[in-house]
Amino acid sequence: MKKGSWLLSLLVVLMLALLLAGCGSGGGKQPSGSGAQSQPQSSETKSDAKAVKLGIIQIVEHPALDAARKGFLAALKAGGYEEGKNLQVDFQNAQGDQSTLQNIARKFAQDKKNLILAIATPSAMAMANETQDIPILITAVTDPVAAKLVKSMEKPGTNVTGTTDMNPIKEQLELLKQLVPSAKKFGVIYNSSEVNSQVQVKIVKQEAAGLGLTVVEAPVTASNEVVQATQSLVGRVEAIYVPTDNTVVSSISGVLQVAEQHKIPVIAGESNTVESGALGTIGIDYYKLGQQTGQMALRVLKGEKPQDMPIEKQKDLDIVLNAKAAKAFGVTIPEDLKKKASKIIE
């Protein structure tokens, strides 16, 4: 072969090679069924695909309910489920609005969450009305049976289980008598439309009679009525009892302002309200209650059925006192009570 012909042939081969390489680059779509492997998913997508989808529905923002939520997530993390890794958390707060609450519940059911945490009775009722399939863990619910969430405390028989925050009401009223021994009448402020509050007030009346105390009711239906309800008790009672009522506790600053002004000591249904300025309580720790609920959730994630898991309650009760509030109310805390207290806020 002549030298010129050889060079020409080599040039043609090189051009063909470059053309074929260009066609094989990622610019065009590969035909379907070509047997080519799909691009691997990113690590984030893989993580999301494996993550447990958790929906948290909360009726309103206030310290006790927030503490329960934090305790729940802490228990899940301790059990190997951490947000951003293998846990997707969709937290929604209805801010006390019932229609918003129902919309959140409906959305969670449509999203087919793997697990739902319902904080407080209204949240639990709204969620249970939307799904009978997704496991629902409840906390800060006073009476799950009265709310028709479960068939019994021992054997729920539904897709709902969790923890109750039923107060030791008798012990709390005894504490009221210890802190305000001169009290004969006390007021109770509560939302008359909340099932959990109706249950508590019924028990309050029963226990008060046995302790020689008279109950003066101050019912409300919305948070903007709480201050007026508190004012209605001025001159009629020597103390005020605030149960674990979502509406009232979310507006506790208004109650305390009126009560301090008129030197009417406030006894609370839970410790976070004492942290806010109430005189004292004997009751549960909502962070620990949330942790307890989270531990139950871990069991559900391992395969246990909610319908077979008894509703649990917190066994360890704490006496929490507020020394600063005692001064504001003009109350002297007995020394023997101080010794028994789990915590004294100075």
Automatic annotation (TrEMBL):
CDD domains: PBP1_ABC_unchar_transporter. Pfam families: ABC_sub_bind. InterPro entries: ABC_transpt-TYRBP-like (IPR007487), Peripla_BP_I (IPR028082). It comes from the Bacteria. PROSITE patterns: PROKAR_LIPOPROTEIN. This is ABC transporter substrate binding protein. It comes from Neomoorella glycerini.
